[in-house]
Design a protein that fits this description.
This is inorganic diphosphatase. By secondary structure, the chain is α/β, with parallel strands linked by helices. 38% of the residues lie in helices and 21% in strands. Strands 3-2-1-4-5-6 form a 6-stranded parallel beta sheet. A 5-stranded mixed beta sheet has the order 7-8-9-10-11. Helix 1 runs parallel beside helix 3, helix 2 packs across helix 6 and helix 9 crosses helix 11. It starts with a strand and ends with a helix.
């Protein structure tokens, strides 16, 4: 039986690229694997796939009766709906430990680094498998994306070391310029429906029994949102009501100014305000230096619900 390598429900570049890179590795060590994805490919990810000659992984949302190697998450809220009917054979992830459990032993590679593909590179090294040029290219791009070209507080010396190693394999002389190309693609939002923008990099969480949704958009200039910000705020509230969420947030990250404006729709704004010791003004607040959802938002917001 083939193992499906697959990331979270709303896949970002790391989720898609790690499914591909992990799938290749498993096949090379004699474990038949098929890369998959649970959702649509983002414009940035499509740019990466096109640049290095890959088709998008298989779109698959049901895994009952299948073997699954999870990439880039371990929270049940980001898993397939039928995860309990699947056999999880492994997890490779760089986030907090989630609530997925298994009835059989599994392989776990969980490290506090900036990107899942950083860990997959360590798996290649462990197994002594050579990384092809095109695989190195997509892994490199995923790390640049997740670490915001090394600006994110999630970035570690390990990520930077591995980017240099992958750049050498892929023949990329200026990886910073490649990273900026990717973020220019991310910044192209004109004509995109606001709901698609909110859900482009959206993750659901259970915070002490409260349903919370957090999306993030990383761009090179927040001014691109000026004409649609009111629409984003209105649709964020619609999303909160439709999904019966306590709180829905959209993180608008300016990678050049190295900070984020947070749009918040909530049944109780005081929880967010307490978490960050900041007052919301018209449902918005600027957080200087905030680039990371997993390190600068969730660790503060989740305890506030307790």
């Amino acid at each position: 039986m083939a193992i499906y390598t697959c990331g979270h429900t709303t896949p970002d570049s790391d989720s898609i690229c790690s499914a591909i890179s992990l799938g290749y590795l498993l096949n090379k060590i004699g474990r038949e694997a098929i890369p998959a994805r649970q959702g649509p490919v983002s414009p940035e990810t499509q740019f990466i796939l096109d640049k290095f000659g890959f088709e998008a992984p298989l779109l698959k949302t049901e895994f009952a009766g299948e073997e699954l190697f999870i990439t880039d998450y371990s929270d049940k809220g980001q898993a397939p709906a039928d995860i309990d009917q699947a056999t999880v054979v492994g997890i490779v992830d760089h986030h907090k430990l989630g609530d997925i459990t298994t009835s059989t032993p599994l392989e776990c590679w969980i490290r506090p680094v900036g990107c899942t593909n950083t860990i997959v590179k360590e798996m290649y090294d462990y197994h002594g498998v050579e990384i092809p040029v095109n695989i190195a290219g997509i892994m490199l791009c995923a790390i640049l994306s997740d670490t915001v070209i090394f600006k994110s507080p999630t970035c570690t010396p390990i990520d930077m070391k591995i980017v240099k190693e992958l750049a050498e394999i892929a023949g990329i002389n200026d990886f910073a310029a490649l990273g900026m190309e990717m973020f220019k693609v991310k910044s192209a939002v004109e004509g995109v429906p606001v709901r698609d923008l909110i859900l482009r990099d959206y993750k659901p969480f259970d915070m002490h029994g409260n349903a919370v949704g957090i999306g993030q958009l990383e761009v090179i200039d927040l001014a691109i949102f000026d004409s649609i910000k009111d629409d984003l705020e209105a649709d964020l509230e619609d999303l909160r009501a439709e999904k019966n969420l306590h709180t829905a947030c959209l993180i608008l990250t300016d990678i050049m100014k190295e900070g984020s404006e947070i749009l918040v729709a909530s049944v109780d704004n005081s929880i967010f305000e307490t978490a960050f010791n900041k007052e919301l003004v018209d449902g918005k607040v600027w957080l200087d230096g905030c680039l990371s959802r997993k390190k600068q938002i969730i660790p503060f917001l989740e305890p506030a619900f307790a």
